[in-house]
Design a protein that fits this description.
This protein is about 20% helix and about 30% strand. The chain has about 425 residues and is α+β, with helices and mostly antiparallel strands.
């Protein structure tokens, strides 16, 4: 570089050193003693220097460095206010580590082992994020701004970060930037979708992530089409296939259902007008939950066998249609789901225009914590990895769980058997 200390406009780079007594709380300070030397430090003198440098080199950049962070935010603001808006300002500082945390705490959170002693430039992107997140997880802050921090790293580290964020958000505020809709729904109480620097929609995380999902598919596959007015309805007759789910009945069901732990779930009818998107070459025309006798239900109990029946209609010839579903909680998080692809990958169906088809999913309804749930149902064409989304209905079928005293997580899975026995006492002699 010809002039390493000049800006691109030819002005000087002005460095302002701000001392600060960090009390050794920051493990990444090299010369801690220097920060405590307040000799010659004066806000008035710094402001005078800023004005003088502005007159000498009107294109200069100002770099504030030294404090971690600057000891007195009010004094820092006085200095920043002295700089005209035409100048660029950079603040080079480290974060304030909590006096209750140590360097060992940070290194344990990052968990990058002996690589902590290696130059950061030799780190992988995942290692850099692990160390950076470990540092912010041990700072004294009221607000955190997190930009795609969970996009790298293994599942163990991601879960560790999520636990930290939930604890932090319970008492503080965070601005969370991510394309991970599940994380947004899990962490945030309000969401904003930006498009080319402008707000496209703001509202609940569920509302915003649904719009984002629609936009994502349409960016890859083109805009959604309106459903044809003469859509052919698929047959509505009851499916008489025999249930096998009775074999997997929870061995505690009689006790649970006779107690206040019984998980009653109200089932609403198919909402044809629910928010949806897709190319509309195939449409979803009906979805219903059935009992073991093939009868539509308005009330079920968690732990009982149930059948989800989905009828579709083709408005074009379609090879290898795929029908799938997600059960989502009130936050829009996917609780569980499945699709028809793997079962029919060797013998994909061929739908002709005007023809209907039916997908049936037999499963045991898990026990659900109290709250509102919905089935998002979709039909696509192609493979699981490469497909065209024809009709995705967000809240096609609503559920309301009135009691969830038997689950120990997001859902409770019916147990075929639970054993708990004493082991033989170890022999006194070997």
């Amino acid at each position: 570089m010809k002039n390493p200390y000049k800006t691109r406009e030819g002005g000087a780079t002005v460095t302002i050193f701000v001392p600060y007594d960090c009390k050794n709380n920051c493990p990444f300070c090299i010369n801690k003693e220097e920060y405590a030397d307040m000799t010659g430090f004066s806000v008035e003198k710094i402001c005078e220097s800023i004005r003088r440098m502005d007159s000498i080199t009107p294109n200069c950049d100002f770099v504030f460095t030294g404090g971690e962070p600057f000891a007195d935010i009010e004094k820092l603001q006085i200095m920043l206010d002295e700089i005209p808006t035409t100048h660029k300002v950079f603040i080079n500082t480290t974060l304030p580590v909590s006096e209750h945390q140590t360097e060992d705490d940070i290194l344990a959170f990052a968990d990058i082992g002996e690589f902590i002693d290696q130059p950061v430039k030799s780190y992988s992107s995942g290692m850099v994020v692990r160390l950076a997140f470990a540092v912010i997880a041990h700072i004294d802050a009221d607000v955190l701004i997190i930009d795609e921090a969970l996009s790298v790293g293994d599942a163990f580290f991601s879960q560790k970060c999520m636990r930290f964020l939930r604890r932090f958000i319970a008492e503080h505020s965070a601005l969370f930037v991510s394309h991970d809709t599940a994380a947004v729904n899990s962490l945030c109480n309000r969401a904003v979708l930006l498009e080319k620097g402008h707000i496209k929609i703001s509202g609940s995380p569920k509302q915003v992530t649904e719009v984002y999902l629609k936009d994502m598919f349409e960016s890859m596959q083109g805009a959604s089409a309106d459903r044809p007015a003469d859509a052919t309805q698929a047959p509505n007759s009851s499916d008489k296939r025999a249930f096998c789910a009775e074999d997997y009945r929870d061995m505690r069901a009689d006790f649970i259902n006779a107690s206040n732990l019984r998980n009653d779930i109200q089932v609403f009818t198919f909402n044809e007008a629910s928010a949806s998107f897709g190319k509309r070459g195939i449409s979803i025309v009906d979805a219903v939950l059935l009992d073991r006798e093939g009868r539509p239900v308005s009330w079920i109990v968690g732990g009982e066998p149930v059948r989800l029946r989905v009828d579709i209609a083709a408005h074009k010839d379609a090879y290898s249609p795929i029908v799938g579903f997600y059960l989502k909680n009130r936050y829009g998080q996917n609780v569980f789901g499945d699709n028809t692809f793997l079962s029919y990958r060797e013998k994909p169906l061929l739908l002709r225009v005007g023809q209907g088809a039916r997908a049936v999913f037999d499963f045991t309804m898990p026990t659900l914590e109290a709250g509102d749930y919905s089935f998002a149902i979709a039909v696509a064409e192609g493979t699981q990895a490469e497909h065209i989304q024809h009709d995705w209905k967000h809240d096609a079928l609503m559920l309301k769980s009135t009691h969830g005293g038997c689950q120990t997580g997001m859902v409770g899975i019916p147990m075929r058997d639970i054993s708990f026995t004493l082991l033989p006492e170890p022999s006194a002699t070997r």
